[in-house]
Amino acid sequence: MKKLVFIISFFSYSGYYAGLAILFSLGLGGMSRFYSVPLRLFLLISMLYLIKNNISNIRFNKFPGIIPLFIIFWCYYFIKILYTENIDDTHTLGRTWPEYIFYSLSFVIFPFITFTLLSLDKFRNTIVNGFIISGFALGIIGIYLYGSLLTSGIGRINLITYQTGEAVLNPLSLSYSGALTIVLCIYKFVILGQIKKPEKFFLIITMILSFALFLLGSSRGSIVALAFTLPLFIAYSPARIKLKLIVFSIILTPIIIWAITASGSNIFDRVTNTSKDGGGGRDYLWTEALSHFLESPIFGGRIEIGGIYPHNLIIEILMATGIIGSLIILPIIFKGFQIAFRRIKENKEDMFMVLILIQGFTQHFFSGSFATATLVFLPLGMAYSCYNKKNEY
């Protein structure tokens, strides 16, 4: 089971994009579905196996009905998919309607249920290593394919597509993968400690590679994610470690600023221009989505407007499922946050799931579709695993 948990963790985010980058480099970007669909099917089967072998961990007399409510919400969401598909011809979905159901199952529903049933004490290191090693793999592949762009003055990786037509990875994928891998490496250094020299070297190399991905992606949202996660290490560290972290931060800040400037990354320009460009047009998307919600506030409207989603998890839930759907799923999300932070107080080694959760929630607050929010619902599942027999307080 540890091998399956590792594989699922590896391909949940960075590992998936590492494979996608290889396809793009071979000029096979148009065949990405022949990679992503079989991979998602394999992960689904793996998660079904884990669920089957861990279902007995649920303490039904104490379990708060989270999974039944979660399933009810998604059944309602599937109805809204069919509603959007069939309401008229002018507001078609961006994909075929079965894809929304398939991606919801593979990205959100089964990861949440699977990790709700797993024991964190048993699989903690496996999950963390899966995420870090996948970040390392993406870093190696990303630098090999796009490293030359760091000193080319291109500013952001997707701009090369406009200049040459070359297909590249989504810059958000690179930036968030880099940020996530960095904070998990810091978690290993600061929270776990007692790391052998070979692993220390590996983690340092991984952080350098991940920082390069962060520069190539130049995402404002990933900066926000780092701003929310890095202070956690100071907050939950002993006084001696706090002092070291503060000193390291002071020393590294000018080095990081120099690296951003020297690489030609346009991250500073993107941050300073946020008010001018409306966050990349998100103010318009959010306004349109909220207007659509107000047209049908109780039951919600379409899951997309003209094939476009609002790039904000909360607004998308309101728009698509209305007050009824929001009253089911939002308490599950916010209660999961509460449980996750409570678990840090019980055991600091559980901080990794909070780091993943903050990274994922920040990303899907500014971009990404609700139906693909793996980095939100996978760690939420870990938070709720406290209700099973092996993790109960």
Please, could you describe this protein's structure?
The protein is mainly α. The chain contains 16 helices and no strands. It has helices spanning 2-12, 14-25, 33-54, 66-86, 97-117, 120-146, 159-164, 171-192, 197-217, 220-235, 239-263, 267-272, 274-295, 313-346, 351-366, 374-384. It is globular. The relative contact order is 0.14. Residues 158-167 have low confidence and may be disordered.
Structural features:
single chain; 393 residues; mainly alpha; 16 helices
Report a brief summary of the structure.
The chain is mostly helical. Helix content is 75%, strand content 0%. The longest helix is centred in the C-terminal third of the chain and has 34 residues, at 313-346.
Element layout with pairings:
Blueprint: H1 2-12, H2 14-25, H3 33-54, H4 66-86, H5 97-117, H6 120-146, H7 159-164, H8 171-192, H9 197-217, H10 220-235, H11 239-263, H12 267-272, H13 274-295, H14 313-346, H15 351-366, H16 374-384
Helix pairs in contact: 1-2, 1-3, 1-6, 2-6, 3-5, 4-5, 4-14, 5-16, 6-8, 6-9, 8-9, 8-10, 8-15, 10-15, 13-14, 14-15, 14-16, 15-16
Keywords: Membrane, Transmembrane, Transmembrane helix
Domain O-antigen ligase-related: 206-329
InterPro entries: O-antigen_ligase-rel_domated, WaaL-like
Supply Rg: 21 Å
Report on the biggest sheet: none
The count of β-strands is 0
Pick out the low-confidence regions.
158-167
Structural class: mainly alpha
Averaged pLDDT: 84
Helix content: over 70%
| Tally of contiguous helical segments | 16
Protein name: O-antigen ligase-related domain-containing protein
InterPro entries: O-antigen_ligase-rel_domated, WaaL-like
Keywords: Membrane, Transmembrane, Transmembrane helix
Pfam families: Wzy_C (PF04932)
